[in-house]
Amino acid sequence: MRWTRLSLFYVAGYLLPAGVGLLFAPQIALRLLLSDGDYGNIFPPLAGMFLLGLFIIVVQLIRLRAEFLYQTTIIVRGFFCVCLGSFYYISRDPLFLVMLGIVAFGLLLTASCYAVEHKTPGIDHRTAGWRLKKKPSLSLNPDASPAALAHRPLGAGLASFVRLFVMYACEWRSAASIAKCDAKSYV
After folding, report:
1. Model confidence, pTM
2. Angle between helices 94-117 and 70-91 (to 10 degrees)
């Protein structure tokens, strides 16, 4: 899903400047977004903080090639478009129309790339996460891939943690008995 992944660079490209602008220069950023409303002194930097958080998440999706989450980004941006359209309808502030245009263009870009690449051979579309039919040949640890981690049973992480905890506890106990030290000598 090369083109879908590349379309997420557009999303990261608007989240970073919008987030930084709203966080550090909110009045200038709001003017650039054609806002004619008053949003106070706290709300624009708060929105900038959330945009920078979304930027970090999108960059991680790109970096990790988390293909099983691409459809989620399309759904979330569809929800954002509906909300931005309703905010514009309520307030008639051009800010929401500009934001709707920016988000909708990215949504159409990603959705069209995803629709084309979704029919690519080599992907099993019947499974929930659209995992690859054959495992990548260059993977050193296939269990550590994001797709493999997403499809592990819910208790697998907890079971691994408990096994590790018991193993280290046993090692510490055997080391303590060898050194003949007890807990009371440290108190």
Report:
1. 0.62
2. 160
